[in-house]
């Protein structure tokens, strides 16, 4: 399939970093039937400001309680905070001055302000939650202030929620605010809401629902009944009531066909979200780490549907084979290549899926329905024409605020709002932000953080999806009859080219793929023979875990680590990498 003239056809200037078209309002992206909370509509064309004032000693204690070492910060971290504070929300005019438009002031006792986040507690810039008491701020009761410090583009959360909105599926909304506490500038934050009863009432008309369950724990799956046993009802008073979710879990496990599953699960909703995870390499939701999602049972038809939240680890962010060392009892991913050789854009659904048997009936036995959904998503939103323009529009909105937020204090070496001096700190600067929204790929060994340039990732991922699923890259239509195609694999012959000396130890590594054109899958001769080239040539994908049954023996974590790093030279690795390996081995010894 040819891609040479694709971007000329799409009318893109892929070398530019800012939009050449200024929309009257970024809200146009959502169409005429925009049902998001009003707060996020207000912030489509403005970066808001939230000012908090509270007791000096409480704020000092709050900052001190962020100081936690990786990797158990999410376990040790307290949700410390106070309701004895004032809040002011406002937007600024074009001159940078505060306006009375949309201004809101909340006195003490009207809201709780506390530390937030889970995995993000391992990093230098903490997040916060603001929960209004019997109030809402322009339709939002819980405001989550997320630093998403790993993402050098500061856009992955925003692009993800926007994309899911385009799929017609309710999810959290996203925009941006600057935060100030007791006169201290904390810089730019990503503002989202939370999936709770007000969310369900807004999108489903279900008041005071008892049928919403949150799956927080890593590895929450159907096969071992952990969905039924560990997903928690969103109502605190019903947290131990699990009969309904357990019955759902059992019914899925007993299903033998797509028809069986369709009786209890909204298949279109589920496959659209699986398609989102697949397209964006979202490893931190259902397919991979199996958490950060909800199950909701609709009142009108008693069918279950999945809802996603937390989108910082998307669009290829931080993907690595090491992520799956913990969960190799479910799936053997030992074939995944090292970071220097992995071609992340060519990840297949099989590569991403940790052997969820549900997908056997919904995708692997016959992927016709899944392919149709992918085609619809590619045509509507997952293509360079739509996404590049969206990236440029968002960049124009937040650029000056990113510059301010990533200004480093020479006396401390930290950027604004970074209080966890024991945590990982990527130290992304404004140059890396510009690269991150375009074609520059960066690795920060300070924090085990890898950010692919968004436009690089989207462009290469789009090529793979169009090739593999038979989508015309110019018309964006499914090609019928579906063409047979050669297999595009994830293991490159040639290593990534790096800016430094050591991929794993240099503080910052900028990397690129100048030899992609030499890879087999890029050659016309390879693609001309799909009958012969229908599977990987330099690695083998193991059988599904559920096919092997008791014969399956997970590879030891020590052995898996040894495939990536020489354990005899661990001491020469970067401090953040040593912390990860120590953490992995400690957990391996517990099992």
Task: Please provide a written account of the structure.
- It is a single chain.
- The chain has 591 residues and is α+β, with helices and mostly antiparallel strands.
- Among the domains are: 208-316 and 356-379, no CATH class; 556-590.
- It is 30% helix and 14% strand.
- The chain has 20 helices and 17 strands.
- The chain has helices spanning 6-9, 38-42, 56-64, 73-76, 156-166, 197-204, 226-230, 243-254, 258-262, 267-280, 349-352, 358-364, 368-380, 384-405, 430-436, 454-469, 524-527, 545-548, 557-564, 575-590, and strands spanning 48-54, 81-82, 85-90, 104-106, 111-116, 127-132, 142-146, 174-181, 184-192, 212-215, 232-233, 293-297, 304-308, 441-444, 449-451, 497-498, 508-512.
- The strands form 3 sheets. Strands 2-5-6-7-9-8-1-3-4 form a 9-stranded mixed β-sheet. Strands 11-10-12-13 form a 4-stranded antiparallel β-sheet. Strands 15-14-17-16 form a 4-stranded antiparallel β-sheet, covered by helices on one side.
- Helix 10 (267-280) crosses helix 13.
- The protein starts with 5 loop residues before the first helix and ends with a helix.
């Amino acid at each position: 399939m040819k891609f040479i003239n694709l971007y000329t056809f799409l009318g893109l200037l892929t070398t530019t970093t800012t939009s050449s078209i200024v929309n009257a309002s970024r809200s146009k992206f959502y169409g005429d039937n925009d049902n998001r909370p009003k707060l996020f509509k207000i912030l489509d064309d403005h970066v808001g400001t939230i000012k908090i004032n509270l007791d000096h000693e409480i704020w000092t204690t709050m900052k001190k309680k962020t100081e936690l070492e990786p990797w158990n910060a999410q376990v040790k971290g307290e949700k410390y905070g106070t309701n004895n504070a004032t809040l002011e929300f406002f937007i600024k005019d074009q001159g940078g001055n505060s306006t009375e438009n949309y201004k809101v002031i909340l006195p003490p006792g009207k809201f709780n302000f506390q530390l937030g986040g889970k995995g993000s507690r391992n990093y230098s810039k903490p997040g916060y939650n603001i929960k209004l008491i019997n109030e809402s701020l322009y339709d939002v009761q819980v405001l989550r202030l997320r630093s998403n410090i790993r993402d050098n583009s500061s856009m992955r959360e925003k692009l993800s929620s926007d994309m899911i909105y385009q799929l017609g599926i309710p999810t959290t909304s996203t925009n941006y605010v600057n935060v100030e506490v007791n006169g201290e500038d904390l810089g730019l934050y990503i503002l989202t809401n939370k999936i709770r009863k007000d969310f369900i009432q807004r999108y489903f008309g279900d008041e005071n629902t008892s049928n919403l369950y949150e799956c927080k724990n890593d590895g929450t799956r159907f096969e071992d009944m952990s969905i039924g046993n560990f997903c928690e009802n969103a109502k605190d008073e019903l947290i131990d009531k699990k009969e309904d979710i357990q019955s759902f879990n059992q019914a899925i496990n007993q299903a033998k066909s797509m028809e069986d599953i369709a009786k209890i699960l909204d298949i279109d909703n589920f496959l659209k979200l699986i398609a989102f995870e697949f397209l964006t390499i979202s490893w931190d939701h259902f397919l991979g780490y199996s958490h950060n999602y909800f199950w909701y049972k609709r009142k009108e038809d008693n069918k279950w549907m999945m809802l996603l939240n937390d989108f910082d680890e998307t669009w290829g962010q931080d993907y690595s084979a090491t992520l799956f060392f913990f969960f190799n009892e479910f799936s053997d991913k030992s074939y995944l290549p090292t970071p220097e050789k992995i071609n992340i854009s060519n990840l297949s659904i099989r590569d991403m899926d940790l052997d969820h048997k549900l997908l056997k009936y919904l995708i692997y036995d016959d992927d016709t329905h899944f392919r149709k959904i992918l085609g619809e998503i590619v045509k509507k939103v997952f293509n360079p024409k739509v996404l590049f323009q969206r990236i440029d529009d968002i960049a124009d909105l937040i650029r000056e605020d990113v510059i301010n937020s990533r200004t480093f204090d020479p006396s401390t070496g930290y950027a604004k709002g970074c209080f966890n001096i024991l945590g990982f700190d990527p130290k992304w600067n404004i140059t890396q932000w510009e690269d991150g929204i375009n074609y520059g790929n960066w690795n920060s060994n300070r924090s085990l953080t890898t950010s692919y340039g968004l436009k690089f990732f989207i462009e290469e991922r789009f090529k793979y999806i169009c090739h593999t699923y038979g989508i015309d890259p110019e018309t964006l239509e499914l090609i019928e009859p579906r063409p047979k195609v050669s297999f595009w694999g994830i293991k490159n012959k040639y290593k990534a080219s790096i800016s430094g000396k050591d991929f794993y130890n240099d503080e910052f590594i900028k990397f690129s793929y100048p030899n992609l054109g030499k890879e087999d899958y890029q050659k016309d001769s390879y693609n001309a023979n799909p009958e012969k080239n229908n599977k990987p040539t330099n690695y083998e994908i193991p059988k599904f875990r559920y096919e092997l049954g008791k014969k399956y023996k997970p590879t030891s974590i020590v052995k898996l680590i040894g495939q990536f790093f020489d354990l005899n030279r661990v001491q020469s690795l970067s401090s953040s990498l040593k912390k990860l390996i120590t953490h992995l081995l400690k957990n391996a010894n517990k099992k």
